[in-house]
Automatic annotation (TrEMBL):
<protein>
    <submittedName>
        <fullName>Enoyl-CoA hydratase</fullName>
        <ecNumber>4.2.1.17</ecNumber>
    </submittedName>
</protein>
<keyword id="KW-0456">Lyase</keyword>
<comment type="similarity">
    <text>Belongs to the enoyl-CoA hydratase/isomerase family.</text>
</comment>
<dbReference type="Pfam" id="PF00378">
    <property type="entry name" value="ECH_1"/>
</dbReference>
<dbReference type="InterPro" id="IPR029045">
    <property type="entry name" value="ClpP/crotonase-like_dom_sf"/>
</dbReference>
<dbReference type="InterPro" id="IPR001753">
    <property type="entry name" value="Enoyl-CoA_hydra/iso"/>
</dbReference>
<dbReference type="GO" id="GO:0004300">
    <property type="term" value="F:enoyl-CoA hydratase activity"/>
</dbReference>
<dbReference type="InterPro" id="IPR018376">
    <property type="entry name" value="Enoyl-CoA_hyd/isom_CS"/>
</dbReference>
């Protein structure tokens, strides 16, 4: 592991693993950790040798949200409406590449918002989500009220936001809050497998489709369809499509061209 003590980074081929490392506080994120998370994902996006990132937490928990001990001491995470840094760090960054959350244990409050910011969520048997900050008067300011209804629908999101109740892995999978299941202790392994599969695809095409899918949330239909074809044209121009189609005609497998 390299990087600041509260956040570690490790490479595995084209995959970057980012780990929140404050286990004594259930990986709650203070100012330093928020900055380190933001810096790690900015660097990931700028590094052409990396294709997919994984966000995880040390020692059996994903993240217990913002560091409430720091908040109580008047040293809470900066809250700035402008710019692309959220109080938890990267939650307002629009990356050009996907991030997968590998979730063991608690992913609550701001920790749940970090998970919602990720493209996909792998949950182990121990995973627990919840808007636990409901109890402490801390608002959702890392995208939770925006992303949760879009991911699981308004009715379910309203329930979770109003009640702050705990959600286990079975329910998370059933309502689309999580995408993949893993046995306890194996979320990172499953996320790594998934990341390697995604990293093996033609990258221009995958990134263009991902970005178009993400952006349609905020666009009207006509603008979204125009943006989709503009992004697709760039992929066609890159030569990736011709390379893939040629590989197909030569009987190569789905990853054969790359
Ligand atoms: C925009 C973002 C907003 C926010 O995120 S606001 C923060 C909201 N966070 C929460 O509401 C979660 C608060 N934490 C909890 O509810 C519980 O913890 C857990 C359910 C996550 C875990 O429970 P258990 O496994 O029983 O552990 P434990 O004994 O409560 O905690 C172990 C140590 O971790 C510290 N800790 C846990 N969460 C936080 C936190 N969010 N900020 C600072 N410290 C935290 C505790 O205080 C304690 O520490 P010690 O061992 O010194 O007593």
């Amino acid at each position: 592991m390299s990087g600041a003590a509260s956040v570690g980074t490790r490479r595995e081929g084209a995959v970057l693993i980012v780990t929140i490392n404050r286990p004594a506080r259930r990986n709650a994120v203070d100012r330093e950790a928020a900055q380190a998370l933001y810096d790690a994902f900015k660097a990931f996006d700028a590094d052409d040798t990396l294709s997919v990132a994984i966000l995880s937490g040390a020692e059996g928990n994903f993240c217990a949200g913002a560091d409430l001990q720091a908040v109580a001491a008047g040293k809470g995470n900066p809250v700035r409406p402008e710019g692309d840094m959220g109080p938890m760090g990267p939650t307002r960054l629009e990356l050009s590449k996907p991030v997968i959350a590998a979730i063991e244990g608690y992913a609550v409050a701001g920790g749940m918002e970090l998970a919602l910011w990720c493209d996909l969520r792998v949950v182990s048997d121990t995973a627990r989500f919840g808007i636990f900050c409901r109890r402490f008067g801390v608002p959702l300011i890392d995208g939770g009220t925006v992303r949760l209804p879009r991911l699981i629908g308004a009715s379910r999101a309203t329930d979770l936001i109003l009640t702050g109740r705990e959600v286990g892995p079975d329910e998370a999978l059933a309502i689309g809050l999580a995408n993949y299941a893993a046995p306890a202790g194996k979320a990172l392994d499953r996320a790594l497998q998934l990341a390697n599969d995604i990293a093996a695809f033609p990258q221009n095409c995958m990134r263009a489709d991902r970005l178009s899918a993400m952006r349609q949330w905020s666009l009207d239909m006509e603008t979204a369809l125009k943006a989709e074809i503009e992004g697709g044209l760039e992929v066609l121009k890159s030569g990736e499509t011709l390379q893939g189609a040629t590989a197909f005609t030569k009987g190569k497998g789905r990853h054969g061209a790359f």
